[in-house]
Design goal:
Elements: H1 2-14, E1 16-22, E2 28-34, H2 39-50, E3 58-63, E4 69-71, H3 78-81, E5 88-94, H4 107-122, H5 130-145, H6 169-181, H7 188-199, E6 210-213, E7 219-225, E8 228-233, E9 236-242, E10 246-252, E11 255-263, E12 266-273, H8 277-295, E13 305-306, E14 316-317, H9 324-332, H10 366-385, H11 404-411, E15 417-418, H12 437-445, E16 447-448, E17 451-452, H13 455-461, H14 469-525, H15 531-537, H16 540-570
Parallel strand pairs: 1-5
Antiparallel strand pairs: 1-2, 3-4, 3-5, 6-7, 7-8, 8-9, 9-15, 10-11, 11-12, 13-14, 16-17
Length: 571
């Protein structure tokens, strides 16, 4: 009896596993889930825990053992999606940024979006000019510590808090001045709403950057926003395509293509290269989901999308869920008492230090800031000279999604828009999500006096880079040799792809012929009276096949089935 109970308990444990989800305020939600549970079940548990109804904007993110990010698919089993062993660790993030976050129906939804954008600001994903940055940081101060109080907030109090990857004393003074004079009397809800209204006007609002390279080898960040497809290089937005202009997203291996019609007589194709095939597939799936969410009128219009024109090749994916217009219509019908919000201002944060989390570590030393700034500007100049294509004209999105002021600002600019005084290099774009404990140590080691290193600083810190004399010649030779090796490797990859395509076509052809042959045999051996089949049955070849092969095979199968039936009955 005891052994039976123990074995049953072990089987139950094997059918369950622990799952931890890190929320936007960096608290953790842990639950036990059945092994065959789907992603929708876990997501519903989290939304119930948060008392969240406008949940279609959010998603669950995880990282596989190869450090590739993924969005959890709600229609599939969790265990089958996770390549690692339980217990699983994931995180709740904003997946589809609201086109107008300040007009969301419930305060709890606005608060969670506020936490996400504050996180984007800290990690450099929401990059903006200095004047905008000061206003955003001041709104965060007002939302979390309230009105300025000389007794509680001594001189230089804003310098103890970290809002951005790094900032200067001048910016810190400007943040304090705005907080002291312009935001007095605002409640946390009002400050958060004003923060969202300011953030949605920025060019990098809603950007979840995917690092890639263009056809010239220049680094770029691709992103999908509520208003369209965006490409960022240096401190500029070099491409912007509205969702109704994008006609197709396609990938093959590491290559990602965007097809668009800007006008009836102007069709463009943008090509970029992801670091790995897995990263390229993730980029493609994110694009497919964002296009369906923001572009379509109804979820019934969603279709299964293939990454290739051939039915037997490539990946197939279908967006599941409601589209943006349906979500907004459903939100308007919400009628309940506003849920209580427990703002997590005093909870220590793992990856996004809040203003109440203690003193901020000093950012880049003052003596290095000018050198870093010069290095960044030199990089921008070289990037500006090496742009590979003419920027696309920037046009506004549909009036239903884009606020009027944003529409006017977009119409007044060309496709080339300056987004910041510095180059776009989000410090968190290469870190896993969620950040594991060993990854936190890695992030700490990448910081310079408490500030995450930018790409430029990482390049500066690399040792042994010859810059002049014989070292420069050696570097040039090494670079040319590396380019030749990369070219040879690319040719080999192309040949391998061609061979795989031919083999795949051959296998599919053989499979189709085999299926057709089986279908023909079944039809000819049936009692179906059709002139075509009667003519086949009367041929000598068919009679020989029928008596020498088909009949003995049928008798053998019947004998085996009787034997299996008798075996089952005897038991």
């Amino acid at each position: 009896m005891l052994s039976r109970f123990m074995s049953g308990s072990i089987r139950n444990l094997e059918r369950e596993y622990s799952c931890t989800v890190r929320l936007l305020d960096d608290t953790e939600y842990t639950c036990t889930i059945q092994r065959d549970a789907k992603g929708q079940y876990l997501f519903d548990l989290i939304c119930h825990h948060l008392n969240l109804l406008e949940k279609d904007y959010f998603g669950i993110r995880y990282v596989d053992p190869d450090k590739q990010r993924h969005w959890l698919e709600f229609t599939k089993s969790i265990a089958k999606q996770m390549k690692s062993q339980p217990p699983f660790t994931m995180c709740l993030r904003v997946k589809f940024y609201p086109p107008d976050p300040a007009s969301l129906k419930e305060e709890i939804t606005r608060y969670l979006v506020f936490l996400q954008i504050k996180r984007d600001l800290y990690h450099g994903r929401l990059l903006c000019k200095t004047s905008d940055a000061a206003m955003l940081a001041a709104h965060i101060l007002q939302a979390e510590i309230g009105d300025y109080d000389p007794g509680k907030h001594p001189e230089g109090y804003s310098s103890k808090f970290q809002f951005f990857p790094k900032h200067s004393e001048r910016l810190e003074r400007r943040i304090a001045d705005i907080h002291k004079t312009e935001l007095i009397g605002q409640t946390p809800e009002t400050s958060e709403r004003n923060f969202l209204q300011k953030a949605q006007m920025l060019e990098t609002y809603g950007v979840d950057p995917h690092p890639c390279k263009d056809v010239s080898g220049n680094p770029a960040f691709l992103a999908f926003t509520p208003f369209g497809f965006v490409v960022l290089q240096g401190n500029r937005r070099v491409h912007f395509l509205k969702w109704n202009e994008v006609t197709k997203l396609k990938f093959e291996g590491k290559t990602f293509h965007v097809y668009a019609n800007q006008r009836e007589d102007k069709k463009i194709i943008l090509t970029y290269f992801a670091p790995t095939p897995e990263a390229c597939k993730h980029l493609w799936k994110c694009g497919v989901e964002n296009q369906a969410f923001y572009k379509l009128e109804k979820s019934s219009q969603v279709r299964t999308v293939s990454s290739s024109n051939l039915f037997f090749k490539g990946s197939r994916f279908r967006f599941s869920g409601r589209v943006a217009k349906e979500v907004m219509e459903q939100s308007a019908k919400i009628k309940r008492e506003p849920p209580e919000i427990h703002r997590a201002g005093l909870v220590p944060s793992r990856s996004c230090p809040s203003i109440t989390h203690g003193p901020r570590l000093s950012s880049v030393p003052r003596t290095r800031r000018r050198a870093v700034h010069i290095s960044i500007m030199e990089g921008l100049e070289s990037l500006r000279d090496s742009a590979h294509s003419t920027p696309v004209r920037s046009v506004s999105h549909s009036e239903s999604f884009m606020p009027r002021s944003r529409s006017q600002a977009t119409d007044s600019t060309d496709g080339l828009a300056v987004i910041s005084d510095q180059a776009y290099s989000p410090s968190d774009s290469v870190l896993p999500t969620p950040v594991a404990e060993h990854s936190m140590e890695l992030a700490a080691s990448r910081q310079v006096n408490g500030a995450p290193c930018s790409i430029e600083e990482e390049k500066e810190s690399e040792a042994g880079t010859p810059t002049q004399g014989d070292g420069a010649d050696f570097g040039a030779d090494g670079k040319s040799a590396q380019d030749a090796a990369d070219s040879a490797l690319s040719e080999v990859e192309q040949v391998n792809k061609f061979v795989l395509s031919v083999l795949r076509l051959l296998l599919v052809t053989i499979g189709l012929l085999f299926v057709l042959l089986l279908l023909l045999i079944i039809l000819t051996e049936s009692d179906l009276d059709v002139a075509f089949l009667r003519d086949i049955r009367q041929t000598p070849e068919f009679e020989q096949f029928h008596y020498e092969y088909f009949c003995p095979l049928r008798r053998w199968f019947a004998c085996k089935l009787r034997w299996v039936g008798e075996l089952l009955i005897s038991k």
